[in-house]
Design a protein that fits this description.
InterPro entries: Homeodomain-like_sf, HTH_AraC, LacI/GalR-like_sensor, Peripla_BP_I, XylR_PBP1
Strand content: 5-15%
Protein name: DNA-binding transcriptional regulator
Structural class: alpha/beta
Number of strands: 12
Keywords: DNA-binding, Transcription, Transcription regulation
Strand order of the largest sheet: 2-1-3-4-5-11
GO molecular function: DNA binding
CATH class of the largest domain: Alpha Beta
CATH architecture of the largest domain: 3-Layer(aba) Sandwich
Pfam families: HTH_18, PBP1_XylR, Peripla_BP_3
């Protein structure tokens, strides 16, 4: 007879309103579907983490977000296998003791963002962080990484924490952010500790007429699709290795349920890469009229704006603006508007459920036929052919082996697990 795997009752203590936690949960799910592990998962129906009574949890194991001090405290007396997930620390003494810990590598996250801004030709740098608090320890670690990189390279970096997000303080927070950005040397590259923080600063820059990325090149951390949707200028972001963290944490707990012990094991998972979009694509612009025009085009190209509207915004004649564009960019204002519309359409066509007619409207093309003609002229293919080509070129889903993923296996081997 085929032996039925033992079913283990596992609690996942995460807050699903955060992209970091959602991706960890996704990684755990990927591990379960690729192995013979049989887990009955406890999660709140709204994917929130509620700790009341967790010490009486009658299960077999727990995977939890230890970035929250309340979680650390609640699980201190639990006599079950626990795997902690969170951010890395510069000081080894800050890690939880006697418990395996899977961490995102905060230093490498910031370094990847910093290297990207350097490659864009920037020489001034700043960090937009969060107010100091126990629940924001990971943000302070990213500040430390930023400071270490600035010190290493002999650069005067600028750190700003601002205030926390709340309805009463929102207007004041935006005013303070604008004042801070205006006080910085330009052009400047700013690393925000999260995409949510980056979105706030990007919105403040747009409200104040500060050109992004000509004057401020901005990059966040998380690759949160919601943050991208809520900004007129597409937001660049460092992609954390959170799915791999989830797979690794699940593998550790699976082994612990069968007798393995990994006390004080610490596994740092590096970032998966960068999603480079318009907010950090800094190119030096010498003439202020071109910078102003680009700022306007970047926000409103997909709303069907014309060259005359751009010239009105800048406050000069159409012929003068065309002359500046030809001299500095080698193309017309119309060509630049069209380039942004085309880029937006290409991004949307990469989504599996995208509709060509809807995309034409949302990107400001006057008709599907016109978008079709632009694609044929600029890319040599129709929008549908482009979509099919992108789908064919996409990497296939990773087929994970029964026991552990290749990446998890490599990470675990490095730590003798």
């Amino acid at each position: 007879m085929t032996r039925v795997p033992t079913v283990h009752r596992i609690a996942l203590l995460f807050n699903g309103n955060k992209i970091f936690d959602r991706d960890i949960i996704a990684g755990i799910g990927e591990y379960l579907t690729s192995t013979r592990a049989s887990w009955d998962l406890y999660l709140e129906e709204d994917f929130r983490c509620r700790l009341q009574g967790i010490e009486r949890w009658q299960g077999h194991g727990i995977i939890a977000d230890f970035d929250d001090p309340a979680t650390c405290e609640a699980l201190a007396g639990v006599h079950l296998p626990v795997v902690a997930v969170g951010g890395s620390y510069a000081d080894a003494a800050d890690y939880p003791q006697a418990i395996p810990y899977v961490a995102t590598d905060n230093f490498k996250l910031v370094k990847l963002a910093y290297d990207h801004l350097i490659e864009a030709g920037l020489q001034n740098f700043a960090c937009f962080s969060l107010p100091k608090a126990d629940v924001n320890r990971w943000a302070q670690e990213r500040e430390k990484a930023f400071e270490a990189l600035m010190q290493r390279d002999g650069i005067q970096g600028h750190i700003y924490r601002g205030v926390g997000t709340s309805a009463p303080s929102w207007d004041t927070a935006v005013e303070q952010q604008i004042a801070w950005v205006r006080s910085l040397p330009k052009p400047i590259g700013i690393i925000a500790v999260t995409d949510a923080r980056a979105r706030q600063l990007l919105q403040a820059c747009l409200c104040a007429g500060i050109a992004v990325p000509e004057q401020v090149a901005l990059i966040g951390i998380d690759n949160d699709p919601l943050a991208r949707i809520l900004t007129r200028v597409p937001l660049s972001s460092v992609i954390q290795g959170t799915v791999e963290m989830g797979r690794t944490a699940a593998h550790l707990l699976h082994q612990m349920l069968h007798g393995a012990r990994f006390a004080d094991t610490r596994i740092l998972v590096p970032p998966a890469g960068i999603n480079v979009l318009a907010s950090s694509r800094h190119e030096a612009r010498n003439h202020p009229h071109v910078m102003q025009a680009m700022h306007f085009i970047r926000q409103y190209a997909c709303q069907g704006i014309k060259t005359e509207q751009v010239a009105d915004y800048v406050g000069i004649s159409r012929s003068s603006l065309e002359w500046y564009f030809r001299r500095e960019l080698g193309r017309s204002v119309h060509d630049e508007i069209l380039r942004f519309k085309l880029d937006a359409a290409k991004r949307l066509l990469q989504q599996a459920d995208s509709n060509v007619a809807d995309i034409a409207v949302s990107c400001g093309f006057t008709s599907v036929q016109y978008m079709h003609a632009v694609f044929k002229r600029e890319l040599g293919c129709t929008p549908r052919e482009y979509q099919e080509q992108m789908a064919a070129d996409a990497p296939p889903p990773v087929a994970l082996p029964r026991k552990k993923s290749p990446a998890a296996a490599s990470i675990l081997r490095e730590h003798n697990v």
